[in-house]
Amino acid sequence: MDLRPNSDEARDIAYHFHSYTNARVHEQVGPLIMDRGDGVHVFDNHGNKYIEGMSGLWSVAVGFNEQRLIDAATRQMQKLPYYHNFAHRSHGPAIDLAEKLISMAPVPMSKVFFTNSGSEANDTILKMLWYRSNSLGKPEKKKVISRIRGYHGVTIASASMTGLPCNHKSFDLPIDGVLHTTCPHYWREGRDGESEEQFATRCAEDLDAMIQAEGPDTIAAFIAEPVMGAGGVVVPPKTYWEKTQAVLGKYDILLIADEVICGFGRTGKMFGCETYNIKPDIMTMSKQITSSYFPFSAFMMTEEVYAPIADESGRIGVLGHGYTGGAHPVGAAVALENLKIIEERDLVANAAERGAELQAGLRKFVDHPLVGEARGVGLIGALEIVAPEGRADEFAPGKLGAALNAQFLKNGLISRNLGDTLAFCPPLIITAEQISEILSAVDRSLDGFS
Ligand code: PLP
């Protein structure tokens, strides 16, 4: 670390309070400062080059210097840098993008609502569902079920729906009415002798039992990512989605598919819902919608979800919800151009093809004594790091993952350790050679480690 008092590192420690960081450790170790990007690579302020194996935060689909997005933002900045959609106002990019998203939806959808982040979108969805239940004369139907280790954001409602301890502990969360059911991670949660399908049945039975215990008329929705991301890249066990949807269908419970990571190609199809034959009532979208060049999010809903909400606003006189930056014209213009690039360059097919290479490569590491499981689908994957045999007591949870992640960095690879899970989620533009670059950095790091 550059310790000169006026270095970027020292000033970062002095003034910058970081997200998802141990603040006291940060004061000692300082930041890794990124300076510029080029395709799937980023360079730090000392000129070191890294392959960005996480697409930033699971989000930069088109790489780190896409001129077309810069041009789209510039054009919109010059024409109309800001407008909103309050009180019947609108603008071209919002209209075009809403129409585009509806046309892309994996099931018939009716309306798009724009927000600024994944958290805000999920928070808004919960509010809308409360509003809808009141509209339907079912004020008791307000609870939402999410999953242990699910990730839905950090605002009060979305952090409550998130099922990770660090998002609840000392924040006095979750709020009442948010419940968490079984995490569908077969490797971790499956019982001795239980097949993947049997485990999926058990997950569905747990959900059913929770609904019965709470009272089916009190549950508005179930929220889930098609593939869990931040909770550890959890790929659903075979038959999970089919069985889960059957339970929800029995009780008239809406399904919110949180496509914030899976959406726009990540799993090798345009949406995770298509990969797993999920029929959502509401879909959350963010991250890859603009390749994160602009903070942006949205959710779309079926007519059945929308109509009672619209009716209630008609009765009250106005829908009392919206954000100054919601439907931002620059974000919408960037999203439109980004989606055009994804389609024109067939990046979804690239995610499927390069994804197959990534998955095959990761699975080869399961023979390594430190690798417990390799998993993933398309261009999202993970290695589960385990202690060498007989030495589990020596390593606190997350310690090995953090150490291996540091080793990756030395080998020019950016991953993210979610406890002892090392995640991989490279940009959708990645080439076969660059997949090999990731895999060889992992190989070298594991070798240097054992
Ligand atoms: N939902 C999912 C599935 C996510 O992965 C994330 C962020 O990682 C969020 C919601 C929250 O998004 P944001 O960080 O933009 O609030």
TrEMBL record:
Family, similarity comment: Belongs to the class-III pyridoxal-phosphate-dependent aminotransferase family.
* The name this protein goes by in its record: Aminotransferase
Give this protein's Gene Ontology molecular function annotations.
adenosylmethionine-8-amino-7-oxononanoate transaminase activity; pyridoxal phosphate binding
Organism, as annotated: Marivita geojedonensis
Q: Does the keyword Membrane apply?
A: no
Which InterPro entries would you find in this protein's record?
Aminotrans_3, Aminotrans_3_PPA_site, PyrdxlP-dep_Trfase, PyrdxlP-dep_Trfase_major, PyrdxlP-dep_Trfase_small
Name the Pfam families for this protein. Aminotran_3
Question: From its record, what is one biological process in GO terms?
Answer: gamma-aminobutyric acid metabolic process
SUPFAM superfamilies listed in its UniProt record:
PLP-dependent transferases (SSF53383)
Query: What UniProt keywords are attached to this protein's entry?
Result: Aminotransferase, Pyridoxal phosphate, Transferase
Necessary cofactors: pyridoxal 5'-phosphate
